[in-house]
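Appendix B. One record, verbatim.
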Amino acid sequence: MHPGNSTSGNILRIISGVPEHLRKSIIINKILEFSEMSNELKSETIQSVLDGYCSLDMTSLKPMLTTSFGIVSNQDIRLIVKTFCIYFDIILAHPEILQALDLQPIIEVLNTLSSKQKHVLFDCYFEALLLHSQRQRLVSTIPEFAVDYLRTLDSQL
Protein backbone atom coordinates (compact mmCIF):
# COMPACT_ATOMS: atom_id res chain seq x y z
CA MET A 1 0.00 0.00 0.00
CA HIS A 2 1.48 3.27 -1.07
CA PRO A 3 -0.85 6.13 -0.22
CA GLY A 4 -0.14 9.07 -2.47
CA ASN A 5 0.05 9.12 -6.22
CA SER A 6 -0.52 5.61 -7.56
CA THR A 7 -1.45 4.41 -11.02
CA SER A 8 -4.63 2.78 -9.71
CA GLY A 9 -5.41 5.98 -7.79
CA ASN A 10 -5.02 8.01 -10.97
CA ILE A 11 -7.32 5.64 -12.85
CA LEU A 12 -9.92 5.77 -10.07
CA ARG A 13 -9.64 9.59 -9.95
CA ILE A 14 -10.26 9.80 -13.72
CA ILE A 15 -13.24 7.43 -13.55
CA SER A 16 -14.60 9.40 -10.60
CA GLY A 17 -14.53 12.58 -12.66
CA VAL A 18 -16.56 11.33 -15.62
CA PRO A 19 -20.35 11.74 -15.72
CA GLU A 20 -22.20 9.11 -13.69
CA HIS A 21 -23.67 7.26 -16.69
CA LEU A 22 -20.15 6.75 -18.11
CA ARG A 23 -18.72 5.86 -14.68
CA LYS A 24 -21.51 3.32 -14.24
CA SER A 25 -20.83 1.77 -17.65
CA ILE A 26 -17.08 1.58 -16.96
CA ILE A 27 -17.60 -0.02 -13.53
CA ILE A 28 -20.12 -2.54 -14.87
CA ASN A 29 -17.63 -3.55 -17.59
CA LYS A 30 -14.81 -3.85 -15.03
CA ILE A 31 -17.00 -6.02 -12.77
CA LEU A 32 -17.78 -8.30 -15.72
CA GLU A 33 -14.05 -8.58 -16.49
CA PHE A 34 -13.34 -9.17 -12.79
CA SER A 35 -15.89 -12.00 -12.58
CA GLU A 36 -14.01 -13.87 -15.34
CA MET A 37 -10.55 -13.51 -13.74
CA SER A 38 -8.60 -16.19 -11.91
CA ASN A 39 -8.48 -15.87 -8.13
CA GLU A 40 -4.86 -14.68 -8.38
CA LEU A 41 -5.80 -11.87 -10.77
CA LYS A 42 -8.81 -10.99 -8.61
CA SER A 43 -6.51 -10.67 -5.63
CA GLU A 44 -4.09 -8.44 -7.57
CA THR A 45 -7.00 -6.31 -8.77
CA ILE A 46 -8.42 -5.88 -5.26
CA GLN A 47 -4.98 -4.95 -3.93
CA SER A 48 -4.62 -2.39 -6.71
CA VAL A 49 -8.04 -0.91 -5.97
CA LEU A 50 -7.22 -0.69 -2.26
CA ASP A 51 -3.97 1.06 -3.14
CA GLY A 52 -5.85 3.48 -5.37
CA TYR A 53 -8.52 4.03 -2.74
CA CYS A 54 -5.87 5.13 -0.22
CA SER A 55 -4.57 7.76 -2.64
CA LEU A 56 -7.92 9.43 -3.37
CA ASP A 57 -9.39 12.41 -1.60
CA MET A 58 -12.97 12.49 -0.27
CA THR A 59 -14.19 14.42 -3.35
CA SER A 60 -13.02 11.63 -5.66
CA LEU A 61 -13.96 8.76 -3.35
CA LYS A 62 -17.64 9.51 -2.86
CA PRO A 63 -18.74 9.33 -6.52
CA MET A 64 -16.70 6.15 -7.03
CA LEU A 65 -18.08 4.50 -3.90
CA THR A 66 -21.67 5.57 -4.57
CA THR A 67 -21.65 4.21 -8.11
CA SER A 68 -19.65 1.09 -7.18
CA PHE A 69 -21.78 0.13 -4.17
CA GLY A 70 -24.97 0.66 -6.17
CA ILE A 71 -23.73 -1.62 -8.94
CA VAL A 72 -22.10 -4.23 -6.70
CA SER A 73 -25.23 -4.58 -4.55
CA ASN A 74 -27.07 -5.75 -7.67
CA GLN A 75 -24.48 -8.36 -8.70
CA ASP A 76 -24.55 -12.10 -8.18
CA ILE A 77 -24.29 -12.68 -4.43
CA ARG A 78 -21.69 -15.42 -4.97
CA LEU A 79 -19.38 -12.93 -6.68
CA ILE A 80 -19.82 -10.43 -3.85
CA VAL A 81 -19.11 -13.07 -1.19
CA LYS A 82 -16.07 -14.38 -3.12
CA THR A 83 -14.76 -10.81 -3.46
CA PHE A 84 -15.08 -10.26 0.29
CA CYS A 85 -13.25 -13.56 0.91
CA ILE A 86 -10.37 -12.39 -1.28
CA TYR A 87 -10.39 -9.04 0.51
CA PHE A 88 -10.14 -10.89 3.84
CA ASP A 89 -7.17 -12.89 2.54
CA ILE A 90 -5.46 -9.62 1.60
CA ILE A 91 -6.21 -8.11 5.03
CA LEU A 92 -4.76 -11.16 6.76
CA ALA A 93 -1.61 -11.04 4.62
CA HIS A 94 -1.26 -7.24 4.92
CA PRO A 95 -2.91 -6.01 8.13
CA GLU A 96 -1.37 -2.57 7.63
CA ILE A 97 -3.95 -1.99 4.89
CA LEU A 98 -6.64 -1.42 7.50
CA GLN A 99 -4.67 1.43 9.05
CA ALA A 100 -4.30 3.07 5.64
CA LEU A 101 -8.00 2.84 4.74
CA ASP A 102 -10.14 5.85 5.53
CA LEU A 103 -13.48 4.25 6.35
CA GLN A 104 -15.37 7.55 6.76
CA PRO A 105 -16.26 7.85 3.04
CA ILE A 106 -17.49 4.25 3.09
CA ILE A 107 -19.71 4.96 6.09
CA GLU A 108 -21.11 8.10 4.49
CA VAL A 109 -21.88 6.36 1.20
CA LEU A 110 -23.39 3.30 2.92
CA ASN A 111 -25.75 5.68 4.72
CA THR A 112 -27.04 6.91 1.34
CA LEU A 113 -27.86 3.43 0.00
CA SER A 114 -31.29 1.91 0.09
CA SER A 115 -32.07 -0.52 2.87
CA LYS A 116 -32.06 -3.38 0.35
CA GLN A 117 -28.61 -2.42 -0.98
CA LYS A 118 -27.19 -2.18 2.54
CA HIS A 119 -28.65 -5.56 3.47
CA VAL A 120 -27.11 -7.22 0.41
CA LEU A 121 -23.66 -5.78 1.06
CA PHE A 122 -23.67 -6.51 4.80
CA ASP A 123 -25.18 -9.97 4.37
CA CYS A 124 -22.48 -10.85 1.85
CA TYR A 125 -19.76 -9.38 4.08
CA PHE A 126 -20.83 -11.46 7.05
CA GLU A 127 -21.46 -14.58 4.96
CA ALA A 128 -17.90 -14.29 3.64
CA LEU A 129 -16.67 -13.81 7.20
CA LEU A 130 -18.50 -16.92 8.38
CA LEU A 131 -17.21 -18.97 5.44
CA HIS A 132 -13.61 -17.89 5.84
CA SER A 133 -11.26 -20.45 7.38
CA GLN A 134 -9.61 -17.78 9.54
CA ARG A 135 -12.78 -16.03 10.67
CA GLN A 136 -11.59 -15.86 14.29
CA ARG A 137 -8.63 -13.68 13.24
CA LEU A 138 -10.87 -11.61 11.02
CA VAL A 139 -13.50 -10.83 13.66
CA SER A 140 -11.14 -8.33 15.27
CA THR A 141 -10.91 -6.46 11.96
CA ILE A 142 -14.65 -5.77 11.70
CA PRO A 143 -15.10 -2.00 11.56
CA GLU A 144 -17.14 -0.48 14.37
CA PHE A 145 -19.78 0.83 11.94
CA ALA A 146 -20.44 -2.76 10.80
CA VAL A 147 -20.85 -3.89 14.41
CA ASP A 148 -23.23 -0.96 15.02
CA TYR A 149 -25.18 -1.95 11.91
CA LEU A 150 -25.54 -5.49 13.24
CA ARG A 151 -26.83 -4.13 16.53
CA THR A 152 -29.38 -2.04 14.65
CA LEU A 153 -30.53 -5.07 12.66
CA ASP A 154 -30.73 -7.15 15.81
CA SER A 155 -32.93 -4.56 17.53
CA GLN A 156 -35.26 -4.50 14.52
CA LEU A 157 -35.90 -8.26 14.66
